[in-house]
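Sample intake sheet
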Amino acid sequence: MRSYQDGMPILDDAIAVVTCRVHATHPGGDHTILIGAVTRARTGQGEPLLRHRGTYRRLG
């Protein structure tokens, strides 16, 4: 299921959601690097999903 925050879809069971606005842009070769300014952050309960060296792991 999804809900919306600031018009953007988010997963209902996400343990962290950060909303940003574009603060600056910089040329990066054939890319554009975006720098965001956080406008809202939300945290919840649960274990984070960590992927390291090709496998999923737990913190701690």
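Comment: The chain has a mean pLDDT of 87. The CA atoms of residues 33 and 53 lie 26 Å apart.
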